[in-house]
Design goal:
Layout (H helix, E strand, L loop, with lengths): L5 H5 L2 H13 L13 E3 L4 E4 L5 E3 L13 H13 L3 H4 L7 H24 L6 E9 L15 E8 L3 E7 L4 H11 L5 E4 L13 E4 L15 H15 L9 H13 L5 H9 L7
Parallel strand pairs: 4-7, 7-8
Antiparallel strand pairs: 1-2, 2-3, 4-5, 5-6
Helix pairs in contact: 3-5, 3-9, 5-8, 7-8
The structure holds zinc ion.
Length: 283
């Protein structure tokens, strides 16, 4: 039975090690190069493949191999990250410096981001889809923080009762949005959008329902954008409490919000821990 009670892991090297190794190998170590199952054990955490002679450690090639702090501290940081404690507040709980905390949190986000990007390759949303765009960061204009660096436009597709997928976009032109809709949604879906002209050719792909915001319009059953609007408000609230997102890392923070929203009824700790022991893809 996998013990993933974070506070128990955070105080025990042995438990953290058992936890992360179990996630990494699922009980059976194989060579990361050739998948061979017969290995020499060189030391407590070093192995050598009998077939290809490759030498590796428990976490070689994974995100975990990029952190230079003990496993139980990683478990503690992961726990604080899951709870949403910003990096600058962590110093009161974990005896490592702010730069290391920030670097580790960024690695957590990168692992989530890469995993989402891999899934996106094959992702086709279908059924009832709400399409919308939102601006991020504009309201803090002139102040310290991300507002000072300008706004971000985000395009989102919400598949009702399932998940949201977001894309940072340079503008909201049809030429920009259409390839994303084409690549990531099934033909024949029901598309709910606002009255924005950028969505004008959607009826060629499926059923297109426009939500009008005129005051005297009664809401037709099911024709609304409540799902995607719920996500926008979730993401903005979430990002706001970080007090400033560096512009170059905005896509990572956006994916983090998406992940938190899509898994809001689950325990994020084991999910995130699992993505940390995945192999880092070659770019
Ligand atoms: Zn091998």
């Amino acid at each position: 039975m996998l013990n993933h009670r974070p506070l128990q892991l955070a105080i025990s090297v042995t438990r953290s090690r058992a936890f992360f190794c179990q996630l990494r190998w699922g009980g059976r170590r194989t060579c990361p190069r050739c998948s061979h199952r017969q290995l020499y054990r060189l030391s407590s955490d070093q192995f050598k493949c009998r077939a290809c002679r490759y030498k590796f450690g428990e976490f070689t090639g994974t995100y975990m191999s990029r952190v230079r702090i003990p496993l139980e501290v990683v478990a503690h940081l992961l726990y604080l990250f899951v709870l949403g404690v910003p990096a600058y507040r962590v110093r009161w709980y974990v005896p490592i410096n702010l730069t290391t905390v920030e670097r580790t949190f960024r690695l957590f986000r990168q692992a989530l981001y890469d995993r989402a990007a891999q899934k996106l390759e094959a992702l086709r949303l279908s059924g009832e889809l709400e399409l919308d765009e939102a601006m991020f960061g504009g309201h803090r204009k002139g102040k310290r923080g991300w507002g000072a660096h300008g706004k971000h436009i985000v395009f989102g597709i919400y598949q009702r009762a399932l998940q949201v997928v977001t894309f940072p976009v340079p503008d909201r032109q049809w030429q920009t949005l259409h390839p994303l809709i084409e690549r990531h949604t099934e033909r024949g879906s029901v598309y709910y959008t606002d009255e924005f002209q950028g969505y004008v050719a959607l009826e060629l792909r499926g059923k297109h329902e426009r939500v009008t915001h005129k005051r005297d319009e009664y809401v037709r059953a099911g024709v609304h954008l409540n799902g995607i609007e719920g996500f926008w408000s979730f993401a903005k609230t979430w990002l706001y409490h970080y007090r400033g997102v560096p512009r170059e890392y905005f896509p990572l923070y956006l994916k983090e919000s998406e992940f938190r929203f899509n898994h809001r009824h689950e325990d994020l700790f084991p999910l995130l821990a699992r993505s940390l022991v995945q192999l880092v893809p070659d770019h």
